[in-house]
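Researcher: Sit down with what I've pasted below and flag anything odd:
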Amino acid sequence: MKPSWDIFCCVVDNYGDIGVTWRLARQLVAEQDVAVRLWVDDLNAFVRLCPGADASAAQQWQAGVQVCQWPTEWQPTAVADVVIGAFACQLPAGYVEAMCARATPALWLNLDYLSAEDWVEGCHGLPSPQPNGLRKVFFFPGFTEKTGGLLREANLLERRHAFEQDPAARQAFLDGLGVQPQAGARLISLFAYENPGLASWLGALAADSRPNHLLVPEGRVLGDVGTWLGEAGLSAGSCAQRGALTVQILPFVSQDDYDRLLWSCEFNAVRGEDSFVRAQWAGRPLLWHIYIQEEYAHWEKLEAFLDLYVVGLSAGAKLAMVDLWRAWNMDRDMGQAWTQVLAHWPELSLHAERWCATQAAQPDLATALVQFYRSWNGH
């Protein structure tokens, strides 16, 4: 019998929660020979990432994963061998009661948010005894060997390299999106939350001596893009030019196509967690729009990652990267920061590839989870 895994996903905001859990569920089934049920409380968000899915189905099979609607009224169901509550979501009370009654204890994991903060290493793998006698274990993704690693399919980098070495494949992908950049244009992707600093960056791109082609998948940043362009109601297919900058709005694409979009660009602005990790696997210079938290707690997470990421850069390149990220996340002017980045572009591009290779040398998150279960289970 294959080990059974239940993953619970509560879609709190945007697509980060479902993006991570859907990617994890698919990889566990494809590479680790386990049976996975993914419980989702908002299938509409799931359908955006998996266009072939049915938002009204109580249960369905997608990519070998049993995707279940998380019902308002929980019905009795068998408890899995491994139970993952993603991002501290509360499991159904009836399911927890069934866990207490299970003859063989299930491994209960709280898959936490990604962070580079120092304390993560100390908390990764720690058990948390519950009042009902169960034990929940904290499992942290991360960037060091003392964490759970990052989501990365076994053949991801091989697929990326094959795509990069096949100009016809890249052209066909861009053609499918209706993207036809002019010769020599710098292709940039933008996936972000609302950001007052966007206007200063777009202004710098428009004033550049090299043409820039900005690809913006549908999302929350469209309002700011439209304000800068002076055009309301932007949607997929919209395209406008200001100076050296062409802005093109793309449809919201599947996860696999989003990977190809990142691979097709020279620079990627991303947000949240899932796209942030995928941009690192793309091996390109990137800009992270971190999810805003109360009392600016997100700034500490931003700085913690930067401390790791800039190791090995020259002083000038390090300053350029730090200034750009701070400007983007702290509502500062982006123009001068972007100019500094352009001055160090070759070094930053090589560094992005080195960072990707360093992270790829560590076990990926899905493998780490399975190894943890086997160790816990005595195998």
The chain has a mean pLDDT of 95. Residues 16-32 form the longest helix (17 residues).
